[in-house]
């Protein structure tokens, strides 16, 4: 099966194109961060707070225009904490909305395979009346946690790739 890496934390590539967006943009108090641990895995971790109408933390990666021709799936090699997360993509990083797919973590290393054509458009947690994702490229990817409860979280990320 042919695959195309979007980001591999093990490669030693700097995190300069990644950024954190917490609910502080809306007055919330959640805190999240992204770092690379000693084993070379990306670690997205923090604490979700519901104070001041908060409730989410996210990381985003500006991957630049990435051709999706021939690829049907996004695959995440991750080790989670048993919580539910949301994977997000944007065909154009200037779009106000994202296309999302939820995934659950098991506490073990797992490959999460997300079909691109079932990702649906959302804005501020509300589903939009737009067709599911059908673009031929993407420019931004992200991972968000926002389960409507105060909680600590930790997600280890090995790689994110496209598969046919």
TrEMBL record:
Organism superkingdom: Bacteria
Domain NADH:ubiquinone oxidoreductase intermediate-associated protein span(s) in chain numbering: 7-157
Pfam family, one: CIA30
PANTHER family listed in its UniProt record: COMPLEX I INTERMEDIATE-ASSOCIATED PROTEIN 30, NAD(P)-BINDING ROSSMANN-FOLD SUPERFAMILY PROTEIN
Entry's family note: Belongs to the CIA30 family.
The protein's name in its UniProt record: CIA30 family protein
Organism, scientific name: Robiginitalea aurantiaca
């Amino acid at each position: 099966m042919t695959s195309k890496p979007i980001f591999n934390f093990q490669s030693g590539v700097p995190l300069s194109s990644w950024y954190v967006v917490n609910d502080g943009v809306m007055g919330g108090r959640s805190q999240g961060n992204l770092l690379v641990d000693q084993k070379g895995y990306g670690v997205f971790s923090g604490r979700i707070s519901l104070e001041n109408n908060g409730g989410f933390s996210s990381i985003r990666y500006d991957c630049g225009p990435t051709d999706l021709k021939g690829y049907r799936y996004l695959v995440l090699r991750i080790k989670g904490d048993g919580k539910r997360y949301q994977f997000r993509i944007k065909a154009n990083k200037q779009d106000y909305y994202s296309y999302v797919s939820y995934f659950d973590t098991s506490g073990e290393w797992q490959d999460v395979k997300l079909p691109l054509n079932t990702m649906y458009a959302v804005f501020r947690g509300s589903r939009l009346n737009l067709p599911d994702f059908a673009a031929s490229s993407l420019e931004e990817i992200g991972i968000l946690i926002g389960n409507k409860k105060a909680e600590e979280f930790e997600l280890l990320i090995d790689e994110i790739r496209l598969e046919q």
